[in-house]
Amino acid sequence: MIAFKSKKFRVKVERVRLPDGDSVDFAMVERRPGTSIIPFIDSDTILLAYQYRPAVGRWILNLAGGTVEESETPMQNAVKELEEELGYRARRMRLVAKLYPAPYMCNQTEYIFVATGLVKAKRHLERGEQIRTRRIRVRDAIRMARTGRISDAITAAALMMLEHGLK
């Protein structure tokens, strides 16, 4: 049963059978896959979006990214969002990780990309998007994630993976 439906997600309640054979009613948020991009200006510097997030009522640092539309692949979405949100195109874009941001209640998959060979392009922010581009040294971004100054969970997870050899 669909309990709620919006443009971005829907809430579904259904009876599910668990691995032990028990059945329970489970409420789940269904959401299209998302993308997040780690764009490297050079080997020591990345771009982050300083973005106003109405859900938390504040500006936060996070990776650029978006929701994958039905007509596109995660790679196509990442290419589009990098240009739309930060105003860059990448000569190389590589999928480096796949995460489930909230698997206890949501089926969304998040695809993490690394973008290199950046070329300046024209930004195309969507209506309602408030984004300022920030150049940040990789080691500073990792420190900010470790200390909670970067509080977006997907961004923090991607930066921690970067710290441990993801590139």
Q: State the helical fraction.
A: 10-25%
CATH topology of the largest domain: the name is Nucleoside Triphosphate Pyrophosphohydrolase
CATH architecture classification of the largest domain: Alpha-Beta Complex
Reading the helices and strands in chain order gives: EEEEEEEHEEEHH
Low-confidence stretches: none
The total count of strands amounts to 10
The CATH fourth-level homologous superfamily of the largest domain:
Nucleoside Triphosphate Pyrophosphohydrolase
Question: How would you classify the helix and strand content by structural class?
Answer: alpha+beta
**What number of domains?**
2
Main beta-sheet strand count, sense and barrel state: 7 strands, mixed
Work out the helix count.
3
CATH class wording of the largest domain:
Alpha Beta
Query: What is the radius of gyration computed over CA atoms, rounded to a whole number of angstroms?
Result: 17 Å
Describe the structure.
This protein has 167 residues and is an alpha+beta fold. It folds into 2 domains: 1-31, no CATH class; 33-163, Nucleoside Triphosphate Pyrophosphohydrolase, CATH 3.90.79. The chain has helices at residues 74-86, 138-147, 153-163; strands at 2-5, 9-17, 23-31, 34-42, 45-53, 58-62, 64-67, 88-99, 110-120, 131-137. A hairpin with a 3-residue loop joins strand 1 (2-5) and strand 2. It starts with a strand and ends with a helix. The model has no long low-confidence stretch (mean pLDDT 95).
